[in-house]
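Supplementary Note 3. Input sequence used for the single-chain structure prediction.
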Amino acid sequence: MQAVSNRIADIANPDAQMNDPAIALERLAARAGQMHSLPAVAIKVLELTNNPQVDARALKQCIENDPALTSKILRVVNSSLFGLSRQVSDLNQALALLGTKPLKMLVLGFSLPAGLFAGVTAEVLGRFWRHSLTRAVAAREISETLWRTPGDDAFIAGLLQDLGLLLLVDQLGEPYPRLLEKVFASGKDLLEVERAAMGFDHTMLTARLLSQWAFPESLIEAVVWKPNGAPAEAPDAGNRQSLPGKQGEKALPQIVHLAELLAQVLADGRADVLPELMRFGRQYHGLSAPSLEALVDGLQQKVSQLAAVLNLQLPDGADYRDILVQSQKQLAEVAASAVEDLLRAKAAGAAIEEYEPIWSELHDLGQAVSKVVRGIPEQQKEDAQRTTSQPSPTAVAVGAASVRTSPTSRSNGREHSHSDGPLLAGLRSAVIACRQRRCAVSLTLVELDRSEDILA
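The predicted structure, written as discrete structure tokens, is reproduced below.
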């Protein structure tokens, strides 16, 4: 994706240090950590379970100090998600049947600070929960049915992976939800778009926050891991080591990755992701079309039941089985060679012109990140928003891409650009893309004579 677009924040401000993605990520994470801390019960549970000799009685008493949390955990344990043979009426039974680790994971997953969800619109929140619950339940099912391992860690990693999205809504304000809307409407890859605008994506921010909260390292790795075999980090953004090379130790990240792809297909309606899901599924654990269909068969019921247990209202959507069938039909209509070409093109990075429809949103988001990192007061932010010029319809061809620029004014025979930010960003994007692909770049500047007559 770095071949597609250079960070817009690099153009928004001349201060290179402020636009370093590692610095921006660290400052956003530090600010989030100051604003959102784990409830006392979750902190105590982490402390108790860090001891290899866990005191089950102390753990039970700690959880029972939060009656609402206790009730929520018991309702989840008694749901179809766990499939227990009999009802569990108290934490003693839950500990006896499940052990301490699943209970610990449920506490961490359901003890999120309430402030994380404040100020998030119902539409964004509904989409967030639909995707997150689908991914969490899918991760548990994939772990237990394909890998034949307990799915507690996978469930929590899937549930929490998008917390960084909520943090960006909270810290960046309107530009980020506006970008979300455009990305979801166009079916683009959100993580790729975020990296184009900011140099990092929201899962990296999630990982930083979970690290501040002292979550297990294996869970943090799974949240941020990408399929190249190592965690996706912004440059110089920490000293976390790459995943070990043993296949068994990669199981959790691979499970969460497959669950995310499946959530994109089912919850987001992205049929174009199905080839990628099948390719990685076969590579990781021999996933076949029949096993995928069996996996999806009961998924939606479990997601709906979990949403009811958590008192969440999910947006309406088509039946997951129908979505999968429709996605498979679309895939069948594409020749195998075309699918492979599509996957290779995606791996190499999308063309710059694919991002032209959301260029304005990318530009605004990059500036929003820069303002937050610089710590500009609210009044200055409002003034900057009022004076920031938007790209106009005048176009400049950069290689194969069309980058929108601002109009110019003439004075004493010279031209002065009102705002050359988008133009410079587009030029830099093209140069980076061509360097990565080792091809030439051409620039054509077109000056319109008597533009007043044309526009009249």
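The chain has two domains: 9-37+113-352, 391-456. Confidence is low (pLDDT under 50) at residues 1-18, 229-247, 335-339, 376-420.
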